[in-house]
Each structure stands twice: as structure tokens, then as C-alpha cells.
Amino acid sequence: MKLDDTIDSLRQGKHIPEETVYSLCLKSQELLMNEANVTHVDTPVTICGDIHGQLHDLLTLFDKSGGIEKNRYIFLGDFVDRGFYSLESFLLLLCYKLRYPDRITMIRGNHETRQITKVYGFYDEIVRKYGNSNVWRYCCEVFDYLSLGAIINDRIFCVHGGLSPDVTTINQIRSIDRKQEVPHEGAMCDLLWSDPDDVDTWSLSPRGAGFLFGRNEVEQFLHKNKFELIARAHQLVMEGYKEMFDGGLVTVWSAPNYCYRCGNVAAVLRVEDDLDRNYMIFEAVQAQDGVGNAIIPTKKPQMDYFL
Amino acid sequence: MNTAVQQTDYDALSCKVSAISKHYLPCPRQIEECGFRDYSGIQMEYIRVLRMLSRRAYGKISRAVSSTMPVMNYGTYLRTVSIDLSIEEFMRKHQDEETQILNLGSGSDLRMIQLLARFPKTTYIDLDFQESVKLKAKVLRNSDQFVNFFQLNSSEGEEINTDRYKLLTADLKDVPRVLELLSRIASKKVPTLILTECVLCYIPQAESQQLIDSVAEYFTHGKWVSYDPIGGNKVNDRFGTIMQDNLRESRHLEMPTLMIYNSPESYALRLKNISHNIHIQIMWDYYMNEVSDEEKNRLKALQFLDEIEELEIMLSHYILLEATW
């Protein structure tokens, strides 16, 4: 019952007491602790990309894709940073996970780390909302327990970023000790940071972490593991999703009008029992909700443009 | 409206301070090619004095600096360096001659210090709103370092008017007043570089065109350097309209020509009456083509850059224009 109250408050973007966050994070940790690095998920399921604290758009996502009460979801990470409601977005997903454990899988993104959240907004948001960083620390503890990937019907591999030269089989991911801050290199880092690109072989990433990988790497990985698709997020796609390498890889992006200024649409991918792919496109909510509340806080915590 | 525009100076200043504190600026080219000395020292001295004089302005700036994203640091780096190198090119071309630099809507920009120190035959004119000029003059007059440099002999005065540096009040929308001012302080025959850095975008179309045409016509030989956002003209490109909405809603800031001069081609038309030699570049292209691999690696090591796609979108909506006559 209390969980449902918290869910209601979160959906309205209301303040959640520090003690409540603490107990939510503790319970989530216990739940996530028992999950494997790579979890198995059955169809039908809806795959969702980056959320980045855009709570109101996350609510739209659930509304338009049928809702958690009746559907299964995989979130590919990057719940926090950039948007103004990182905490509420992340906690809402955790609450759903506690309330409906078999309906939602949460994979770790490259933003679910102490180092990145200090630069990209989540840490500042917490200090702004609570006057101290305790809640940020509780959430970071949860980040360390998030899984690294998921496999749908033994055919689709889900991950936040992409492939790693250190990973040719799923067993190599299973043997990672994931309960730690994301390292700056190695398999765990690459899974969260890498990007597909038009390259002949593993190449340096312009992001400063992870690798660029191409058609060859994707085809080898799919073949070796008997997969037909890699579903990943991590990169802004103006059209919401983008298939590459003859449909062997897809990028799904679920933060419409990213950072309230990029003008992109968002998408989620619903995978049916026969592995048919259906993309659902959605737009950002208006700057004001139905009762005139500003979706973007009037006191903007940062500048967005060169002025 | 004037206040909203004037406040953008704090954004520019905080962006610059942030890029300096994270070591994006100064870059090797500014030091080697533009001969910049004590770049961050000069900027920090300004901020130190500003802090003593205006807690409000300082508060705004320090809050903004602490939350600046890597994308913003990249953009500020490119904006600053591209303009500095463009000015440097002009200075080299006229290195033995007298020159003038006219910074329209100068805000807190401190370029004049590096340039006046290096080019003894140069006169530098900063024009801006009264509020901006007042604050800048106050900061400069209250720093021993700046007082010595500009040889200011009084700590009083809302403007600065020395032989080689003039910091004067003008509303750029009032073109007759700008021209009247120029006729008193600027020589028509001396090659002059005119800089508008995020300035034309805030002025309505008619007034901005009149400003460009009149000021450029005043100087026989000149180079106009302008950095501005462009709204974008590609199908499904909503960046410009969203930018207008965001800034109008959050800060009552209007950008009347953003969607009129929405592409490099249309933006370049603003200078067509005065120059047949117009070069205009999108900042993303500038980053891709003009920044060496070595320098890109240096930048990459400063902060994790996430997302590069977002950087491309942002930088594709800003341009640097250079027009000579």
C-alpha cells in the first residue's frame, strides 16, 4: 500500500522524504542483488532506451505502450542526468520493479555511475532538492547492482552501449564482478560505453571510453551466440530509433526533445512472441501540463544555449 | 527586453570562466598564434573584482559555472578560439598599419587586453548597453592590474575613454546614435575589425540590417566577424523554434531573426551589401575541419563527452561569419 502511495507521489513529481528513498534503495538493492549480470526475459516485451530524468516523457512512454500493469519492459539504462527529474524517474522505475518484479528489467547505463552523475546533473539535482548528497549516495549504491544486459527468448541481446573486444560470448559477461563503480576500461566499461559505427574493426571512441564497432563485430557476435538482434540505446537518434547492419542492431532512444532542446522524437521497441518488431514513436509533452504546471522548472539550474 | 539581452552577458562570461577552469581555454593555438599571455589570470582578476562589486552578478555567474556541461565547454571553446583566430588573421594582415577594433555588444569580453598589449597601433572600442558598460568600467577601475594597464587616472566614471581604449554606452538598435558616436571616436580610413558575438540575433531584422549597412559603410576598409545561432532550415529541424520558445518562456529573451537567417546561406545575405568576400562556417564543420586530431584528443581528455550527437546538433546551429571589404 505504501509503495502505491510513493508511486502516486512520484508520478506527480512530488518531494519524497529522504528516509523513504533510503528504504526504497535498500529494498531495490536486495532485489537486484539476486539478479544475474545478464537476465533472461520472455516476449512480449517493450524495450526502452535512455530516459535521462525526463519524468513527464517517461509517463507518456508508459501511457502509450500499455502500462506496467499489463506489460513487460526492459529499460536499457541512462535513467538519470540531464533532465530535471532524474531522481523521480529512477525511483519510479525502482518502485515499479519492487511492485511488479517480473515486469521490469533495468540495465545499467553509462550515466549510472558516481563520476558521470557528478558532471551531468544528477548530483546537483539531489543537492538542490535535499540540501545534501545523501540521496545521491543511496542511488549510486543501487546503480552498482543493476544488471549489465538482458536476453529475450535467447534471440535478442539487450545492452546499454554495445560490444567489447573482451566479450565474444555471454558467459564472459556472466563472469564479470559487476558490483562496483563502472571502470574506465575493460568489458564492463565497453558494454556501457561503446557505439556501432561504419568501421572495419574495433576503433577508438570519440567519447573517451568504450570502442566503436562495425558490421563485422556485430555479425560475429550474433553468429557465435545464435542471436538475431542487438538492441541498445546510448546514442541520440532524431527519429527515435535506427536499425543498422541489415537489422542486426538497433538503437532505441526514449527521451523526446532531449535536454528540452534537441527537437527529436522518441521510440520504444515492442518485441512480439514471434519476435516481430514494432516501434512506437512518441513526442515530448508540452512545456506546461494540463493544469498549468511548468514541466521545466522556472528556475533553470543551467544554461542550455550559447548566448 | 533590453535587460533580458543584457543578462546574456552573464551567460557568456560564465561559459568562458567554466571553459577556462576546465582548461579548454586557453588552447595551444591561442598561446602560440595569438600570443596570449596570462589568459586565465586576466579573466580571474576580472571575476575577483566583480565579486567585490556586485554579489548579484557574481552569484549568477558562479552558480552557472558550477553546472556547466561538457557540451557547453566545447561550444564556448570553439566560439572563443574561432573568433580569436579570425581577429589574429586581420591583425597580421595589417600588422604595420594603424587598426581599429569595434566590439559591438561587447559585454564583459576582455579581448581588448591581449590585443592592445600586442598591437601598439591599435585602438579598441567596446560598445554596449549602459548597465553592461557601467559594470565593466567599475570592475576595470577597481583593479590595480587593469588600472595600470589602461593607465586609468580616476576610479570614477561610468565609461572609459582613453586614447587607445574606449568603453562607451550605446543601444545598438539606435543606429543614428551609434553612427554619431563613431563619427567622434573612430577614423573612417583606418582598417577596422567589427565584432558581433551573439549580438545581431537579439536585434530586430530592420534595425540589425541598418546597423550592419551603416557601420560597415562608415569604414572604408574592414572585416566583419559575427558569431550567432541559426534556426536551421532542414526538414524536421525544430531546434530553432524550440530555442525561441525556451528562451522566451524562461527568460523573456527574443531572437527575432533566428528563423529568418536560419541557414549559413541566408545569414550571409546580411553582409551582401558591403562585401563580396564572405566566408561562413557552421561550428560543427569548424570542429571537424579546423581542429587538429591532436587538439581533439586534448579536449577529449579534459572531460567525458556525452553525447557527441547532441554536440553535433548544438554546433550545427551556430555559425562564424567573416566578411571583408
From TrEMBL, chain A:
Keywords: Hydrolase, Manganese, Metal-binding, Protein phosphatase. It catalyses: O-phospho-L-threonyl-[protein] + H2O = L-threonyl-[protein] + phosphate; O-phospho-L-seryl-[protein] + H2O = L-seryl-[protein] + phosphate. One of its GO terms (cellular component) is protein serine/threonine phosphatase complex. PROSITE patterns: SER_THR_PHOSPHATASE. GO terms for molecular function: metal ion binding; protein serine/threonine phosphatase activity. GO terms for biological process: DNA repair; regulation of TORC1 signaling. It comes from Lachancea fermentati (Zygosaccharomyces fermentati). Residues 107-112 form the Serine/threonine specific protein phosphatases domain. Its cofactor is Mn(2+). It holds the Pfam family Metallophos. Its EC number is 3.1.3.16. This is Serine/threonine-protein phosphatase.
TrEMBL record, chain B:
Gene3D superfamilies: Vaccinia Virus protein VP39. It catalyses: [phosphatase 2A protein]-C-terminal L-leucine + S-adenosyl-L-methionine = [phosphatase 2A protein]-C-terminal L-leucine methyl ester + S-adenosyl-L-homocysteine. GO terms for biological process: methylation. Pfam families: LCM. The keyword Methyltransferase applies. Its EC number is 2.1.1.233. Keywords: Methyltransferase, S-adenosyl-L-methionine, Transferase. It comes from the Eukaryota. Signal peptide: none annotated. It is an enzyme of class 2 (transferase). Methylates the carboxyl group of the C-terminal leucine residue of protein phosphatase 2A catalytic subunits to form alpha-leucine ester residues. Belongs to the methyltransferase superfamily. LCMT family. This is Leucine carboxyl methyltransferase 1. It comes from Lachancea fermentati (Zygosaccharomyces fermentati). The lineage of its organism: Eukaryota, Fungi, Dikarya, Ascomycota, Saccharomycotina.
